[in-house]
Design a protein that fits this description.
By secondary structure, the protein is α/β, with parallel strands linked by helices. The chain has two domains: 4-191, Rossmann fold; 204-305, GMP Synthetase, Chain A, domain 3. The chain has helices at residues 4-19, 32-45, 63-73, 84-91, 97-118, 131-135, 144-148, 174-183, 188-191, 211-230, 283-296; strands spanning 23-28, 49-55, 78-82, 122-126, 164-166, 239-253, 256-269, 277-278, 300-305. The strands form two sheets. The chain has a five-stranded parallel sheet, with helices on both faces. Strands 6, 7, 8 and 9 form a four-stranded mixed sheet that branches. α10 (211-230) runs antiparallel to α11 (283-296). It is globular and about 70 Å long. The relative contact order is 0.13. It binds xanthosine-5'-monophosphate.
């Protein structure tokens, strides 16, 4: 019978043997898979593991600094790289969803490659690939696990891709990854985190991206997600987030008419993201969140709730 404790013991032992005294690079995303993969390697080889956590400027509010601190608290040898400006520059003026994804993927590879080269004598690249990623190579684009995949040892590719690949979670499903993390004592705030797309808020800001739009959406998203947590709803939802729409609408504030932005909130139930149902969140909850957003976030005067299921509506709006 498979148990997480036994998996940790055998995997740590085989990683030790496989890697010996060599150095390993791993890209942390803040998500469950890369975090658990890092923890297993940390147990096996300690500071021979060099983690890189890139801020693409499109993460949730405060996520980069708080998750980085959390990683350090776990004892990981991690370097935080704030490349926000580089990503925003590459995205400037771009409205096409796929071109936005490509630009983010390209800059990620550039940044990761630069950082990898600073780790002298590294011979391995670790990835948090899990079994569904292996069987379904179409999956995501833009994030560490998607952009890196296994194109190693091929000429003309970034240097870090010439590294040997180690994927300790390759045979596991998501729920098993969580159980492995739990058996290593990892925090529920990491293991229970909702999925978040590699391109981040860039695909939740419809149209072109500016620093101001990112900051508006971060505020809106934080109110929604904190609200879900405070109401005990966060763990009942598979994924949630907010979309900043390319629409201004008329509102009133005091005697003044306003003409400001509209946001859409989305919360879905799913098992794998392939299909999804919108969640019937309580009206009282939506009412409070909507009031908070409109009162606290400057530039937003209207909130709508997305009641579309997948298919045909995707989870993200881009
Ligand atoms: P959709 O919008 O296709 O999303 O219903 C299904 C799941 O995939 C995530 N998603 C992405 N993840 N890069 C990623 O890493 C992407 O470009 C991307 N697009 C969608 C989405 O958040 C959901 O969990």
């Amino acid at each position: 019978d498979w148990t997480p404790d036994a998996f940790v013991d055998t995997t740590v032992a085989s990683l030790k043997e496989q890697i010996g005294d060599e150095r390993v690079i791993l890209g942390l995303s803040g998500g469950v898979d890369s975090s658990v993969a890092a923890m297993l390697l940390h147990k096996a080889i300690g500071s021979q593991l060099h983690c890189i956590f890139v801020n693409n400027g499109l993460l949730r509010k405060n996520e980069f600094s708080s998750v980085l601190e959390q990683y350090k608290g776990m004892g990981l040898n991690v370097k935080g790289v704030d490349a926000s400006a580089r990503f925003l520059d590459a995205l400037a003026g771009e409205s096409d969803p796929e071109k936005k994804r490509k630009a983010i993927g390209r800059v990620f590879i550039e940044v990761f490659d630069d950082e990898s080269q600073l780790v002298e004598n590294a011979t391995w690249l670790a990835q948090g690939t899990i079994y569904p990623d292996v069987i379904e190579s179409v999956s995501a684009t833009g994030g560490p696990s998607a952009t890196i995949k296994s194109h190693h040892n091929v000429g003309g590719l970034p240097d870090y891709m010439k590294l040997k690949i180690v994927e300790p979670l390759k045979m596991l499903f998501k729920d098993e990854v969580r159980r492995v993390g739990k058996s290593m004592g990892m925090d529920a705030s990491i293991l229970g985190r909702h999925p978040f797309p590699g391109p981040g808020l860039a695909i939740r800001i419809l149209g072109d991206i500016t620093a101001e739009k990112v900051s508006i959406l971060q505020e809106v998203d934080a109110i929604f997600i904190d609200g879900l947590k405070k109401s005990g709803l966060y763990d009942k939802v598979w994924q949630a987030g907010a979309m900043l729409l390319p629409v201004n609408s008329v509102g009133v504030m005091g005697d003044e008419r306003t003409y400001e932005k509209c946001v859409a909130l989305r919360a879905v139930e799913s098992t794998d993201g392939m299909t999804a149902d919108w969640v019937n969140l309580p009206y009282e909850f939506l009412q409070k969140v909507s009031n908070d957003i409109i009162n606290k976030v400057k530039g937003v005067n209207r909130v709508v709730y997305d009641i579309s299921s997948k298919p045909p509506a995707t989870i993200e709006w881009e």
